[in-house]
Amino acid sequence: MKNIVKAYCLMGTFIFSQITFAANKNHPFPKDLSELTLPYEVTESAFSKRLSTGKRILEQKNWNVWGTSPIIGDDGRIHVFYSRWRGTHSKWLSHSEIAHAVADTPEGPYTVLGTVLSGRGEGHWDADTIHNPTIQKVGDKYALFFIGNNLANATQYDGHHASTQRIGLALSDSLYGPFKRVSEQPILEVSPNKEDWDSYLTTNPALLQHPNGEFWLYYKAWDKYNDNMRKMGVAIAKDIKGPYIKHPKNPLVNFAQYKKQVEDAYVFIENNKFYMIMRDMGVIHPHVGLMLDSDDGINWSAPQLGYRTNVDFTDESKIQRMERPQVLMQDGKASYLFLALMGGKYDTSTGFVLKLN
Fold first, then answer.
1. Which of 215, 216, 218 is nearest to 232 (CA)?
2. Quick one: pLDDT at residue 26?
3. Signal peptide: which range, if any (predicted)?
4. pTM for the full predicted model
5. What is the mean pLDDT of the chain?
């Protein structure tokens, strides 16, 4: 008989009763989840079961594309805000910028309109790379959250390139810009106490406009000074510009006791329930997504399969990294899943869109 995961929430943190997690990134992901060689049973979310065929978008020669965030404009068109940079994939650390493209349908084809935000240069916290955008309409404004870094300042920490990653926010009256940063400083800083889980970096923002009128900013932190694991938390503000106050139950999603991690969460509400879809970093398999649900946005369920690998949705044979899930909502329902996907005809990286049936 298969062992079944027993899960519960303790102080807002997700805990498993199993002794270990195992996932092999080199092992093909099976159609039948019962074939997984894991010490517990894995179930597939209703969200994952709704996903149909996928299509690469924004395949551009000499460009890497990442983190495609969609929104429907007042013009009825599909607008995407995404990261792009030239050179090798590692250049995202120093050369990424946020660009804007439009299409008549989520599957494209897309017309690239140009750069929206780029690094501000020496003397700024976001001097070098601008990356991982997520876009939402807030009242009569458009809110574009992003991450930035200043590589020269890494020596003030431990010298690692990630140590200066922080979250920023830019607002605009129009999807066509201009987008203006709301502050000279990050919108969410690290904790000054190295014993805290988010004292090293704050990154990968996901905004939820709560029904109570608050702005809930979910984010990833790397607990590098303690257990070296990546976890998810939330900070809450009354105004879109902040200040964002970190929740006392953080981190909300934490698999560190099993030496497993997650990142790239996107949070949305459907049928009065909270959903968190994110990139799996080994809980089930390093190339799939996880889906958690919640009644309050703080205490989260056991993870289910959120999405399968790229080979399940395309005629591609090589499993590639597929990250940064972003959901297009239409009439209160999730209608498309947008992802970043390595590879493509130029062997760089592209956007990827999946329709939800």
1. 218
2. 53
3. 1-22
4. 0.92
5. 92
- DSSP E strand boundaries for 86-185: 97-103, 111-117, 130-138, 141-148, 166-172, 180-181
Domain assignment present for residue 110? The answer is yes
The dihedral built from the CA positions of residue 248, 254, 259 and 263, taken in this order, carries a sign that is: negative
Among candidate residues 204, 194, 205, 193, the one with its CA nearest the CA of residue 227: 194
Residue 2 lies in a domain: no
* CB-CB contact of 42 with 304 (8 Å): yes
| SS3 assignment, position 142 | strand
Q: What is the dihedral of CA 245, 148, 345, 266, to 10 degrees?
A: 0
Per the CB < 8 A criterion, the answer to whether 221 and 227 are in contact is no
Whether residue 41 is contained in a domain is answered as yes
Supply the pLDDT for residue 80: 98
Asked whether residue 172 carries a pLDDT value surpassing 90, the answer given is yes
Beta-carbon contacts of residue 106 (< 8 Å; ≥ 6 apart): 70, 78, 328, 335, 336, 338, 353, 355
CATH (domain of 152): 2.115.10.20
Count of domains in the chain? 1
Closest CA to 260 of 38, 2, 3: 38
The DSSP call for residue 62 is: T
Tell me the pLDDT tens digit for each residue of 309-320: 999 999 999 999
What domain range is 155 assigned to? 7-356
